[in-house]
Design goal:
Blueprint: H1 2-18, E1 36-43, E2 46-53, E3 62-71, E4 74-79, E5 83-84, E6 90-95, E7 103-111
Antiparallel strand pairs: 1-2, 2-6, 3-4, 3-5, 3-7
């Protein structure tokens, strides 16, 4: 009886933990659009992404990089600074907590 209950409990926990996946894993927007350069860099307990765009497909004057951050099972977005087209990089950083570091699971660019 105890073995059967323990087996069912273990199977339930295993199925719940294995079904959690990052939403941006393998997403098509992990590559910069044409005319943009991207670099990942490390920060204390995290990771950041910087993007410099010289031209975008849509007629725009400003752009902003948005990082898809992940730490353990937590997932959130961090918006970078607005930058005029052709000027300095837009940077977004994923900062983790005291026990968990965060990393960039993906990114995309928003143009204005």
């Amino acid at each position: 009886m105890y073995k059967k209950t323990a087996g069912l409990l273990a199977a339930g926990i295993l199925s719940m933990t294995s079904s959690v996946a990052a939403p941006a894993a393998g997403a098509a927007d992990d590559f910069p659009p044409p005319g943009c350069l991207t670099a990942l860099y490390g920060v204390f307990l995290g990771q950041g992404v910087q993007m410099t765009c010289y031209s975008l497909p849509d007629p725009s004057r400003m752009y902003q990089v948005v990082a898809h951050c992940q730490s353990g099972s937590s997932y959130w977005y961090t918006a970078g600074n607005l930058v005029p087209l052709g000027f300095g990089p837009s940077t977004a950083e994923c900062n983790g907590g005291l026990l968990w570091s965060a990393h960039v699971a993906g990114f995309h660019v928003v143009d204005f």
